[in-house]
Amino acid sequence: MKLVAAFALFSDLYVAVRVAFWPTVIDIYRNPASIFSISRTFMTHVWSVFAAPTDENGRLVKRSLLLPHATGTVLDIGAGFGHTIQYLDCSKVNRYVALEPNLQMHSGIRQRAERVGFRESDGSLVILSCGAEDTLDILKALDGPYPVDTITSVLTLCSIPSPERVIASLVRDILKPGGQILFYEHVLSPRADVAWWQRFWTPLWSFFLDGCRLDCPTHLHIGEMKYVDDDGKEFGMWDEGESWGKPGESEENLWWHQAGRFVKHVR
Ligand SMILES: C[S@@+](CC[C@H](N)C(=O)[O-])C[C@H]1O[C@@H](n2cnc3c(N)ncnc32)[C@H](O)[C@@H]1O
């Protein structure tokens, strides 16, 4: 791996510190308790600047992934400022549920959702401030068993502790049989040299960026997911599914992306 690619993280970290350092200091000055969630505060300021260019960068993949496939009730885990909303076809999506534990991002979600007609007043927009790991709270907030037709995750599973367990629980308990998960994530590279650098940088990167890890094999966790039937037999979770890369992306990118669509088994 070229050293310039291995050390690319520094230029991103430098820009992140430049845009978010002083706003974070000001937040802590105004609300000293925010020192206890300093990484989250820092990430809020980073993402308020980076969300739009990052969205632009993944636009083609996200459009072809989300626009034709997202239907019914969509649960968007880690909705951020709501950039995924623009890829939803409102004639096929009747409810957008944004799961976003960072309360400072909720107004952005609300604005983007209302722009395309999702409103809290008529129930077509639901904003939940729990984390993806809080399956019971999500079930309580939505109605009935298996309330979700589509789970979307855009650049979020890297920030969730124990993502393999969390996504399995969301798929098992919340996603309808025949429902789908659509994801676009940066993941662990299949190249050993790139993966080495991803593991090396992860402690530093996740310290600044609210737990975001470079070394999550999210696409493999999802693709290999199993369920166990009443007789204790193990089956693949999916009726169909595949994951694919971002066209034109360098193999040496520390943020190596995979998109995927998997359809839950109908028992
Ligand atoms: C890199 S941002 C991506 C946001 C958005 N999906 C986008 O594409 O702009 C990751 C998001 O995951 C959220 N997040 C962090 N931990 C989470 C958790 N445990 N459950 C759900 N979301 C979480 C963060 O607050 C942040 O908004």
Automatic annotation (TrEMBL):
Gene3D superfamilies, A to Z: Vaccinia Virus protein VP39
Keywords from the UniProt entry: Methyltransferase, Signal, Transferase
Domain of life: Eukaryota
Matches recorded under PANTHER family: METHYLTRANSFERASE LIKE 7A (PTHR45036:SF1), METHYLTRANSFERASE LIKE 7B (PTHR45036)
InterPro entries recorded: SAM-dependent_MTases_sf (IPR029063), Thiol_S-MT (IPR052356)
Gene Ontology biological-process entries: methylation
Taxonomic path: Eukaryota, Fungi, Dikarya, Basidiomycota, Agaricomycotina
Annotated protein name in UniProt: S-adenosyl-L-methionine-dependent methyltransferase
Signal peptide: 1-16
Species this chain originates from: Lentinula aciculospora
GO function terms (MF aspect): methyltransferase activity
